[in-house]
Amino acid sequence: HDDAAEGALPVGWTTVCTGRLTAKEAQVGGRCDGVHGTTDLVRAVERSCNVFYYRAAARVGIALGLESGLVNLGVKSLFRRTRPVYDGPRPYALRRPLTSSFPSGHATSGFMAAALLSDGDEKVAPLYYGLATVIAVSRVYVKIHHASDVAAGAALGMVLGRVARHVAPLEAIEESEVLSPL
Hints:
- 53% of the residues lie in helices and 7% in strands.
- The chain is elongated.
- The protein has helices at residues 2-5, 23-27, 41-47, 50-79, 105-117, 125-141, 147-167, and strands at residues 15-17, 20-22, 37-39, 178-181.
- Helix 4 runs antiparallel to helix 5 and helix 5 packs antiparallel against helix 6.
- By secondary structure, it is mostly helical.
- The longest helix has 30 residues, at 50-79.
């Protein structure tokens, strides 16, 4: 599909499930319960098409790992902002992190995940972004972050999510990538 090649996953996007895995997918235990042919997300869920899930999960996991390294080892060290001063008991007995406060890594991760998970299915986007918002606001509630840390983290997460969608679009499995029939 032309849109998928450009980095967008439009509503109605499909992939071809050949019932085969790439060598890399087979090494990590991926599987497919049968040859499903052309399938979309709904049919993949109904048919337990793990090839489809593997591609989407790998993209989210790798992107979040890179984001965590970038934010926690890079961006936070540039700002070195202190965390909110609070001498009382913290809600839920959370420990005070030792890293810089700015930006909120939880907010960045939440909004990046929302951008990736809602890719191509804008109907569920409010759910993912709503969950990201709850995560972000909870960091202020538990007195671990300033509101501006969370706002910056959310903005950074949305930008990184869009970049990841462009750099690593979900694609159909190419015949040349397959290992062997299951």
